[in-house]
Design a protein that fits this description.
This protein is mostly helical. It is built from 5 helices and 3 strands. A hairpin with a 2-residue loop joins β2 and β3.
C-alpha cells in the first residue's frame, strides 16, 4: 500500500491535510479530492464531508484557500503523526 494511502486511511483528515499543506505550494483541492476518492473516502464518507473538514480548518486558521489551492493558515501546525514519527517520511 502506498504510504500516503495508508496515512489517509489511518489518520484523521485534519491531520492528513496538515501534512499535505506543509510546503509553501500546499495542495490543490482537486488533488486532495482525488486522494480521498481513490482511498474510498475514509473518515469523511464523501466529498461533502471533506469540504466540511476544510471549512472547519479554515475557520480555525489552520489552512487558507484561494480558489482551488489549499495552503498553510496562520495557525497551521505539524501533523501529530509527523511529530510522533509514526511514518517514515521526510
Amino acid at each position: 500500500m502506498h504510504m500516503l494511502e495508508r496515512i489517509i486511511k489511518n489518520e484523521p483528515p485534519e491531520e492528513v491535510i496538515l501534512l499535505l499543506t506543509r510546503n509553501t505550494d500546499g495542495i490543490s483541492l482537486p488533488r486532495l479530492d482525488r486522494f480521498y476518492s481513490m482511498a474510498n473516502w475514509p473518515h469523511v464518507k464523501h466529498n461533502l464531508g471533506l469540504f466540511e473538514v476544510l471549512d472547519a480548518m479554515k475557520k480555525a486558521g489552520l489552512i487558507e484557500q484561494s480558489n482551488l489551492q489549499i495552503t498553510k493558515g496562520p495557525r497551521w501546525r505539524d501533523a501529530t503523526f509527523m511529530i510522533e514519527k509514526k511514518y517514515p517520511l521526510e
